[in-house]
């Protein structure tokens, strides 16, 4: 007999199979969602890692681009490949947008550029492609070598923005070699009272940052408004208190003392080809005569040696000439420069320095005969008795230009005219050779001279006997064309200071006074170099110091400025205006 099961017995208790099936479905959906999210997160992480790896690679490449720029700058300084390379001031063909990585698209193309501000542009908007000559700045470590009085030395610093007498004297006390307190300065007794205490350097500074230890010097004074140290006025450096750095929003860049000062400048006392110059204050007159005759000719040798023996002739019937000679201290007076050889002067009775030592008459006669003299030891050249010795040392080569000398030639007084005429046309022709071949300073280096081609007006105004008119004329004379192009003839002409007199900016008597402070080119350079891609991220900005007093030129230091930003637009770095197609 069939048994009929009640309907109630067939119904699952507590939900049975149907309840479990719904839970599994939800669980599966949750798992799928988690796996999907996990896959998405993994994908995002991989994409981020890929982008980070790509960016790291581009950053590494940009570093290599910048390093290549440093090496190129050092190579061009040491061994210029072309005549154009002689211009380190502005050479866009060599230093702007140098392509190192080629690509079909802008994002892949990599470059470096050597870029610098135009120091004479107060607005801080003009840029150039070249190197910064450290001699364009005032070298604190050589400042005392000029041996000026305390007031004049302080004055060389007083034209810097916001400089005070107290800070100027504190800087000078920091670098001098004693504990003698200047009128407004500070020495170790002040610094040892601070917490923590320290002593004054009393010697050469190792870096400009050391100035922050000097009484009264602050970071704002040292670095000014140029927060990213690119030498140009950026929007955030001209908006008052809206963004750091806080500025006066006057449309002008106040760069801070770091743009005016240096501790690294050096200048070799040698010719452009690296050979030794002729020391014109040589006390051995026959040696001087012979070297000048070989270098130039007998007439030049005769005039220069006569100048050393008798000094410049001043017409007694010309009151203006007499007054000018008195004002300049008489170009025939004995040099007071510490850089001339103090032992090169002779008195009236000393004779040639090699023929008068200890009164050894026989030795004098022997040497005199060997040198073409007579039995009494007299040495003669160009009809002049050189045994009378040199009475005058030259303070400047510019004393020789347009001068006259009254000398005794073959027993007769004669008026010798300078072979170097004072007209501008002639000076433009001979001055480069004259200033390259001769020197009034003995030794391998010249101390602290300032490159007039790159010096800011504040530095020029501090130089003794510099007038505001002269300083304005120097800084107003362009080294770059109106369209930003290099002016080749300017670069060649301005490797020395002769252009100041040949162009009538400085007269000869004033140039004689200024000469020991001025130069046309030093031998230590600063290069700011940016390695970058034409489009997209990845850049490196460095600042290198390169010393060309050694051969090959030596890269002394490289500072990484990348954290301060790229500093320049692609257009500024390449000279290519972005038309929006990239």
Please tell me about this protein's structure.
With 582 residues, the protein is of the alpha+beta class. It has three domains: 24-134 and 448-582, no CATH class; 138-264, Ribonucleotide Reductase Protein R1, domain 1, CATH 1.10.40.60; 278-424, no CATH class. 33% of the residues lie in helices and 13% in strands. The chain is built from 18 helices and 20 strands. The strands form eight sheets. Strands 1, 2, 5, 18, 19 and 20 form a six-stranded antiparallel beta sheet that branches. Strand 1 (98-101) and strand 2 (110-114) form a beta hairpin. It is elongated and about 135 Å long.
Report helical residue fraction. 25-40%
Strand segment tally: 20
Number of domains: 3
Count of discrete alpha- or pi-helical segments spanning 4 or more residues: 18
The biggest beta sheet is recorded as: 6 strands, antiparallel
Rounded to the nearest angstrom, the radius of gyration is 36 Å
Distance between the termini: 93 Å
Give the uncertain stretches in residue-range form: 331-376
What share of the residues does DSSP label as strand, in percent? 5-15%
Q: Which whole number gives the mean pLDDT?
A: 86
Which structural class should the secondary elements be placed in? Answer: alpha+beta
Form type: elongated
